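TICKET: design request
STATUS: open
ATTACHED STRUCTURE:
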């Protein structure tokens, strides 16, 4: 595995590298979710590039940028073991040179949900993802369904700027009790870790009610809220049933849909989502 820290060195490493080239963008603190993306890329691509960059512009002023975990040595070993060919670990100044003033905004899909609760978040995400795409010029790029709205935003971004780049959605990797794997799970106290299972339980409850015939989106949302608000101290940001393509709220689940939840336990913010399959 080759490790590079500049865009110039990344381009040199990829010049003449066998194609297809697959890119796996991450913020590090690698876990089984990230590694599932790398494994998928390894299976489908001749060259696998992973980036590790904690992107400052996607964090709000009161969010966890400073304390975000950065276990680079352990990450390097995990990336190597996953078969990554080129690890791109740029310093902040490489991605945001002095005076950086250009931003990418994906309108519509960025507006609601995470966009509403984390103003500027998707502008930061879209900007860094486009910078990474332009630096690596991959044939395929791998993103987790764990961050479902981000996945949709990135698909739009790729279609608008880099037609031909294939965005590969990868299923959410979970702990045995259902909690979605996340670099932020390390912040949870043992009690919060227990309580955090409520997110997946709420999503699953919505799916079960739907399978039993409840097609009203507001009824499914209320049911998810009941599960979440039964957890003492949990602060709910949203529990929504949305059109899987547009992320607009639904009245009735009569097309492919997604249940989305976001909640805070103490100062740890967690998100999760689940595909909702209406009965045939
Ligand atoms: P992050 O390092 O949190 O920015 O995540 C990097 C990529 O890994 C994103 O595409 C995430 O959606 C994906 N990812 C994070 N957690 C999981 C998970 N539990 N299962 C699948 N993909 C994930």
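STATUS: resolved
RESOLUTION: sequence designed for all positions
ATTACHED SEQUENCE:
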């Amino acid at each position: 595995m080759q490790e590079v820290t500049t865009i110039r060195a990344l381009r040199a490493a990829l010049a003449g590298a066998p194609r297809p080239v697959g890119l796996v963008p991450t913020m590090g603190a690698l876990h089984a979710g990230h590694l599932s993306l790398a494994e998928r890329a390894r299976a489908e691509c001749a060259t696998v590039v992973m980036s590790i960059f904690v992107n400052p512009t996607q964090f709000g002023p009161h969010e966890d940028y400073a304390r975000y975990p950065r276990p680079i040595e352990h990450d390097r070993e995990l990336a190597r073991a996953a078969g990554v060919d080129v690890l791109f670990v740029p310093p902040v100044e490489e991605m945001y040179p002095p005076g950086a003033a250009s931003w990418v905004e994906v309108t519509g899909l960025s507006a609601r949900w995470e966009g509403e609760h984390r103003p500027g978040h998707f502008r930061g995400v879209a900007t860094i993802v486009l910078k990474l795409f332009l630096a690596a010029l991959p044939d395929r790029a791998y993103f987790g369904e764990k961050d479902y709205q981000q996945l949709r935003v990135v698909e739009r971004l790729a279609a608008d700027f880099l037609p031909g780049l294939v965005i590969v959605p990868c299923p959410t990797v979970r702990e045995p009790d259902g909690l979605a794997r996340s670099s932020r799970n390390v912040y949870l106290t043992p009690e919060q870790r227990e309580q955090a299972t409520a997110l997946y339980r709420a999503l699953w409850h919505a799916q079960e009610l739907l399978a039993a015939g409840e097609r009203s989106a507001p009824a499914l949302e209320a049911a998810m809220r009941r599960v979440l608000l039964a957890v003492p101290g949990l602060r709910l940001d949203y529990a929504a049933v949305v059109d899987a393509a547009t992320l607009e709220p639904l009245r009735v689940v009569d097309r492919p849909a997604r249940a989305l939840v976001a909640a805070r336990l103490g100062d740890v913010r967690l998100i999760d989502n689940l595909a909702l399959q209406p009965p045939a």
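CLOSING REMARK: The chain has two domains: 2-170, 183-273. The first strand starts at residue 2 and ends at 4.
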